[in-house]
Amino acid sequence: MHWEPVVSGLRFPEGPIAMPDGSIVLVEIERGTLSRVANGRIEVIAELGGGPNGAAIGPDGRCYVCNNGGFQWHRFGDLLYPGDQPDDYSGGRIEAVDLATGRVETLYTECDGHPLCGPNDLVFDRDGGFYFTDLGKGRGRVMDRGAVYYAKADGSLIRELVFPITTPNGIGLSPDGKRVYVAETFTGRIFGYDVSAPGVLARRLPTDECVVGVGGYQFFDSLAVDGEGHVCVATIINGGVTRISPDGKKVEHFATDDPLTTNVCFGGDDLRTAYVTLSSSGRLVQAAWPCAGLAPNYR
Description:
The protein is mainly beta. The chain is 1% helix and 54% strand.
């Protein structure tokens, strides 16, 4: 697959959203911003601070952001890597940003008295609610246990769906909306949970919910689902995008040149363009995808 450059000079980009006008809205985690990429230029939409991570457009047209509260940062040559919880950690939260004004509203900081530690990625369903992951934070020898949540966009409800789960990261919905996919980072696994009602999962044994586990030394980051139902998960260490069939029996890998390939989304008039964030080198790239992507519920 041939990856073409879109823009460079980003400060650890993630959460790309392909907008109808051809621009890409994304977060810059190290910079602490929600930004827009258009015509090769980078424009800051809102200063969020902390660690803005996954992002998605909601039913009201605002951009909803998982903010992980921040990272320690480490440089290895020209590459930037995130680390543990920083001294200036500002707490995990879900934020909503008005794209026209940059106004930021904090919607959720806890669930049933348990603080959100490191919200990572989110996806909206057709009913206007969203599923999101909380990967947690590392602090030296201690690592939080992760969780999956469901929440309403108006700030009126948040519900824990899965706990504990190991470093949950990317999250997406099947084309029919009846299955939620979750990527575990450090295990390199994809789990699939059947949806029985909006924000309600039909839980089974964890062994039944694992779609695939890949071997070798590679981690899974955020994901998107394409129009044929493949789970397309950004892959760390073995940098690239891994495309997994819904039943987990077919696994393809499309390599990039960045070991911290972190996110993928689909855009263009026919949704056949994959936009991918190469985070450690601060780039956004694009390529033609083998099939059309799945359009977000709100775009």
